[in-house]
Structure formats: C-alpha cells, structure tokens
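Q&A log
Question type: sequence-to-structure
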Amino acid sequence: MSTSKEDTSTPGEAPASSTSPDASDTSDTSNASDASGAFVSGTPVSPVPALGGVFSAESFSGLGLLLLAPVLVNSRLFTLFAWFGLTDAGTATAEEVALFNAEITVAGGLSALAVLVGALSLFLGNARTRAWARWGASATVLAGTVFVILAVITLVSVPAAG
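Response status: OK
Response body:
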C-alpha cells in the first residue's frame, strides 16, 4: 500500500505543498506544479531543442574520425616508418621514391586534415554537445597528431633516388 501524495490526489490536480515557499522560490514552485500537473494529465512536454545539423560539433567529430580511419587501418605508414625512419634502407629508384613520398604525403595530409576538423569540433562544442562527440574529437586530435609527426619523420627519412 502506497501513501505517496501522487496516489491520493486526483488527476490534473497539483499536489499541495506542505511548506510555505519563500519569495524567491515562487517561480520554481509554480513551474514544478505546472510540470507535475502536465505530467499527470498526460500533456506532452516540449523537449529541449537538440543541437545538430551539418555544421555542428557532432558532424565535425564524425568527419574527423572518418578522415583518420584510413590512416589507422592502413599499416603502410608504420611499415615505411620502420623501413626509413628506424633503419638505413639503402637506395631506391626514382619511381619507388616518388611512390613512397606520395603514400607518406597522403597519409600525413589526411591526418593533418583530421586534426583540423577534430579541433574545429572541439571549438564548436559547448555544454550541450554530446559526450561522444567530444571524446571522438579529442581522440582524433591526439591520434592524428601522432600520425602527422610519424609522417613528417618518415618523409624526411626517405633517401634520395640513387
């Protein structure tokens, strides 16, 4: 058996307050009674307008993750870094050097673009930005920065054609 005030009041009737409200609490009490009356009567309460759209922090966070995904999945940058950055790979033909430079430049460029888009997402975000967007943008900026540094070190380490 329940003895709560909601069980003893009739639908549409606001529950009576047992304490006298202060002058500053008057608006809060009337809003609370209006909201509870609306809830009991089944009146839909308008939700807080959701953020979003094409140019929102969430969109830019997702775009940054999508731009960084090919660099994360493709292990070629790691291979080239290990080959040129950590060892003396020797010589390569002009065609191979051009191919290596193109691969490294594309991976570094995508990483740099992902970092810029993730940073834009963080700057556009506010208190109403969804948590996953902030986490995704932060991860994009951190991981993308590591890949940009890796690409620069690898690009500098590629030997000249010879």
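Response note: The chain is about 65% helix and 0% strand.
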